[in-house]
Amino acid sequence: MLTSQRKTLILDILRRDGQVIAKRVAEDFSLSEDTIRRDLREMAAEGLLKRVHGGAMPLSPDLPDFTARRSVASEIKARLGAAAAAMIKPGQMIFLDGGTTTAEIARRLPRDMPLTVATHSPTIAAELEHHPTAEVILTGGRLYKHSMVATGAAAAAAISQLRPDLFFLGVTAAHPVHGLSTGDFEEAAIKRHIARCSAETHALLTQEKFDLVSPCPVLAISEVAGMIVPAEMPAERLKPYRDLNVAIAAA
Description:
It is built from ten helices and 15 strands. By secondary structure, it is of the alpha/beta class. The strands form four sheets. It has a seven-stranded parallel β-sheet, with helices on both faces. It has a three-stranded antiparallel β-sheet with strand order 1-3-2. Helix 10 (235-242) links the parallel strand 14 and strand 15. Helix 2 (22-29) crosses helix 3 and helix 5 packs across helix 6. The two termini are 40 Å apart.
C-alpha cells in the first residue's frame, strides 16, 4: 500500500471514529506500528491531525479573536444568517448566541416582524438598536471578551427565566463522534444551558468547522434540531451527520 493511500485511509478512520489508534490501524493494514506512527507524525506536521499518545485525534481549530473573525467567510456567513432568519415566525422568542455568524441573523430579521430577541452578547444586542419591532433582552454576567458573550452564574440565572422557541448556536468545531465543541469551558457551559432552556437548537456552521474537535464539548450532534451549512458542502462530508438524524439546511 502506498504511503498516500495509507494516509487517505487514516483520515477516513479519523472522520468516522473520531480517533486513530496506531496499534489497531497497524493490525488492520498488516503493517508495523512504527510505520503507522511515522505516517501520523508526517500527517501532524502537514496539519492534517493532532498527534497524541498511541494515535491521533482531529485537529483543534484556531481561535482568532472576535474582531479578526468579522472578515472571515463573510459572504457565506451572510447566507447562513439569511437562512436562519427565514426560519423565524412572528411572535417567537429567539436566542442568538454570540459570534459573527449569528450577527448576520440579527441583520436579516424582517423589519416588520414582531419578535423577542434574547442574547448574552452585547454586540448582538447592538445590531438590533434600530430594529423597529424587535424586543431585545440582554442578559448580564462576566464578559468573555474573546467571543463577546456573558458567562458564569449570573448569566445562567438570567437565562433560566427564559424559554426561547429557537436558539441559534455558534461553535468552533463539529464532529460526528465528538459533537459540537468550543474553546472555553465557561462558554461551553452557557451554550448548553441556553440549549436546555430552548425548544429547539440550530447550529450555524461554516465549512472549515467540520470534522474538527475543540477542547470543550457543548452538545452531541443528535441533541440539536438542525444544522445550517453552506450549500457547497460535499454530500459525503455531511453523510455522517445526516446519519445522526439531524436536519441539515443548505444556504
